[in-house]
Amino acid sequence: xxxxxxxxxxxxxxxxxxxxxxxxxxxxxxxxxxxxxxxxxxxxxxxxxxxxxxxxxxxxxxxxxxxxxxxxxxxxxxxxxxxxxxxxxxxxxxxxxxxxxxxxxxxxxxxxxxxxxxxxxxxxxxxxxxxxxxxxxxxxxxxxxxxxxxxxxxxxxxxxxxxxxxxxxxxxxxxxxxxxxxxxxxxxxxxxxxxxxxxxxxxxxxxxxxxxxxxxxxxxxxxxxxxxxxxxxxxxxxxxxxxxxxxxxxxxxxxxxxx
Length: 259
Prior knowledge:
Layout: H1 2-33, E1 39-40, E2 45-48, E3 54-61, E4 67-78, E5 84-87, E6 100-104, E7 107-110, E8 114-123, E9 130-138, H2 151-162, E10 171-177, E11 186-190, E12 194-199, E13 205-213, E14 223-227, E15 232-236, E16 242-249, E17 252-258
Parallel strand pairs: 2-10
Antiparallel strand pairs: 1-3, 3-8, 4-5, 4-7, 4-9, 6-8, 9-10, 11-12, 12-15, 13-14, 13-16, 16-17
């Protein structure tokens, strides 16, 4: 009986050890997934003032490896029904430069715990507001990616990343180019059961930090809404609720309270 009991105890200890190892492995997975470059782009919305043609966008790398980041840009084109599509930037009439937004540099090498800026330069027609999708994509550099590194450095980087589990996450942002002659004309309509913000101007307005505060309850999480020219945004008014938001028209900000 004693030998049998001893084998059973050994088996139980072995199972316990396996469970501990399994738990330890699960605990390290988030850390492993964080290995490699980790980029952050700051604000997801940027706005180019009417009197500006260049704006800096700083990208941060908080990871433990160098980040090789590609910048891709497409224009967001809206149809009359409000639907949108993203299209590549077209060349201008001279077929030399693109009519729209360019990033310089469009390839960034960002060291661990470092940062780098890219210049967003608008070139082209600006009689009406234009919108662009920016994508910041960390990649394993290949020759065709046009990063200024040697073949040996490229291979060393691949081998470093292959030593662990790496998740490289890209980010998208929206860049709004206000028209050269921006005009703001926001109509606020406070009705009995609804509040409407209508943009009768030619430049985007922002409803920022919108909060809905029910009586005797915590306020709901704040939100942000963009209202394009010719569009409107409405919200229903509930009895006993208080609403507040900041109306941003270019460089002007107004605090609005609704009861």
